[in-house]
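Researcher: Structure for this, please.
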Amino acid sequence: MSRPAKSIHGEWTTRWAFILAATGAAVGLGNIWKFPYITGEYGGGAFVLVYLACIVVIGVPVMMAETLIGRRGRQNPMNSLEDLSTEAGVNPVWRYLGAMGVLAGFLILSYYSVVAGQAMAYVFRTFGGTFEGVTADGAANIYRSLIHDPEKLLAWHTLFMVITMIIVSRGVQRGLEKSVRFMMPALFVILVMLVGYASNTGTHFTDGLKFLFRPDFSEMTRLGFLTAMGHAFFTLSLGMGAIMVYGSYLPKKTSIIKVSLTISALDTSVALLAAIAIFPIVFANGMSPGAGPGLIFETLPIAFGHMAGGTFFGGMFFLLLVFAAWSSAIALIEPTVTWMVENHGLSRLTACLYAGIITWALGLLTVFSFNIGSGWTLWDKTAFQLLDYLTANIMLPLGGLLIAIFAGWMMRETHTQEELAIESPLLFKLWRFLVRYVTPAAIVIIFANLLGLIG
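Model: Predicted structure, token format:
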């Protein structure tokens, strides 16, 4: 069997280009929106410690597995897994694992774009002074006026998708690489600015650091352990084909273990910096760190509206959310675009046009689920809730589990050793042990928990 030496779509020009792109794929609303509030819900420091351990045990081994599959296959996830199955002498049915990843990314982007559009709207609202002196009821009404207006929500969803597809249509080096070279440094600069801003809250900044880094395991429940494992897995964008297709653009000489560790460290740093920036502001305003999903769009605007410089720094915070969302969005749609180009002979521009229009159209279900279609439910879930549940609770953990099984059990050991090129035999054996036994067992526990099979 002859595998392509390089992807037809091009390669990253440097190791850091891949690191920034893959970090961008991993960093998203989950780091800045979800991580702070689940940390608040499960007691702070103890949750953070368990989460960091899970990144090492679950996240890094699966990221290495997904990257090596992508680089060895050099094609879209479906074609890569089919070719590598043939190479390993196993049933090519494994190509459907790639198909599931492509579909998951496509489905996630359809609703992710709508939520990201809300963040875009909040950039202008915050910089415009909408939240100055706002009350709790006022902040809630502002949010409701946005999501209950299908025309406004549709406009922001459309704008976000158009910009995303323009970036993707420009290709690996001129589109993906150029955008992440700007967005990821900008994201870190804004985060550091917000941490500096939070440091001016005096003792509240110290309280925030204590809450985050002083573990108290009496506050940690069994569900907290399971949530930490689940978030460690999902935050790295594993199981949706994005890391696999980005790995297909990775030059042969680049060390997979080094880039995987660096990406995991950067992704975790963003989550921690976001929490360091958010918790002091929350404490300074007498709010609960475990306020839940409403922390970003309803709680934080109140805090920014009553703090000196809050208009500027609040606007920068929502700009940070938008950059994080874009860096993830281009990764979510890339597997679909590469599949259209490779399997249907379309030009990249045409593939982006088709993929963008279909994703945008599917996103209408999410747009309407907040307003005129809020009564349309299936299994007591709106379209938005159903898509989120299907992807996050079923497709991603199943995809991650099967990636670990394929790399650890289906691929030949000599092939994984050749692709990873780990000099230390002991380190390679450790990765192989983790990816064959420990990681799948952990993912099965997460999967069972999310499906309600264990409590």
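Researcher: Any notable elements?
Model: The chain is about 75% helix and 0% strand. The two ends are 47 Å apart (CA to CA).
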